[in-house]
Specification:
334 residues; alpha/beta; TIM Barrel; 9 helices; globular
Length: 334
């Protein structure tokens, strides 16, 4: 039985956070004072969760954090995930899972090729400025820019494609990086995706005034070169655009100004084994506790199906009744 919520949305995408530790302290995410709060599970536990969810129709798995490359054993975990197959398949390549990873890129240069060899399909690198000084101001990690750039180039050489570079735009910090990122997309052969700043940071300082919206991004980029919109699947989070001469692509993820909740196909598992049905959920559903009680795979599947039926219809960012998520982004997993 495929996972489907009460609004008729099929759940096909799974995010698994394998740690809430991170070696960066980005200003839009962390206070810089707190580290991990929830801890990690053995990879065998994440693998069992993934196996049950794949049997329920999950076709894409993304590993997140924190910073997932901090976990020793991540390459072996990717290799084990790559052996999972969708049920009732024909055994051909169409049954292979799409396995992706989101990373800050600091440790990626040495791991890109081993991850590809283990079965990783693609990678997304978080990078919020193409100016080294601005990058340091945002991440609060001196010298990190060179590591991330090396990681991006290593991932491209390894064939981890499509290679996406995510930039969270925050007014007063990096909104002047829009055109430089457009140039970066063309020069480095990567897909740059701009993300509207969401109220998921530890300091809870978000306000609508800090958001650089989709319309503003498009307007600024048009000062550099004209853009042409690319059709995208309804469940995709990003609106996609290519430059008029066909060289370079950007995407814009606009959950604040242009919400896409109506076609959401995602659920998340936190590093401590809780299911979250939305980034902005105000509660968790403890899947790992079910495992600790000795639940069978069939019982886990029944629990997951019940949780998915409780999936929220949409978020309420910017509305009077908005309640912040019960966890911040680094402790949820992107």
């Amino acid at each position: 039985m495929l996972l489907r919520d009460k609004f008729g949305r099929y759940i096909t995408d799974l995010r698994i956070s394998i740690t809430d530790r991170c070696n960066y302290k980005c200003v839009y995410c962390r206070t810089g004072n707190e580290g991990a709060l929830y801890g990690d599970l053995p990879f065998a536990d994440y693998l069992r969760m993934a196996r049950v969810l794949v049997a329920l129709g999950i076709t894409k798995i993304r590993l997140t954090g924190g910073e997932p490359l901090l976990r020793k054993g991540v390459i072996d975990f990717v290799r084990e995930l790559s052996q999972l197959r969708r049920p009732n398949g024909s055994g051909n390549s169409a049954d292979v899972l799409d396995i992706a990873l989101t990373t800050n890129g600091h440790l990626l240069a040495d791991l890109a090729q081993p991850l590809k060899s283990a079965g990783l399909s693609r990678v997304t690198v978080s990078m919020d400025a193409v100016d080294p000084d601005r990058f340091t101001r945002i991440t609060r990690v001196p010298g990190g820019f060179d590591h991330v750039l090396a990681g991006i180039r290593a991932a491209r050489r390894a064939g981890l494609w499509p290679l996406k570079v995510n930039c969270v735009l925050m007014r007063g910090f990096n909104e002047d990086q829009i055109i430089p990122f457009g140039m970066f997309a063309r020069e480095e052969g990567v897909i740059v995706r701009f993300i509207e700043f969401m109220p998921l940071e530890e300091e809870r300082t978000w306000s609508p005034a800090t958001v650089v919206t989709l319309d503003e991004i498009l307007s600024r980029m048009a000062e550099y070169r004209p853009l042409v919109e690319i059709p995208h699947a309804r469940s995709e989070t990003a609106r996609r655009y290519r430059f008029d001469d066909g060289i370079g692509e950007i995407g814009i993820i606009a959950p604040v100004s242009h919400p896409f909740c109506g076609h959401c196909s995602r659920i998340r598992i936190t590093s401590d084994g809780k299911i979250r049905t939305c980034l902005f959920s105000v509660w968790d559903h403890d899947l790992h506790a079910q495992m600790q009680r000795g639940a069978s795979d069939e019982e886990l599947a029944e629990f997951i199906q019940g949780v998915v039926l409780k999936k929220e219809e949409r978020h309420h960012i910017g509305e009077p009744d908005f309640v912040p998520a019960s966890r911040t982004m680094v402790h949820i997993g992107g």
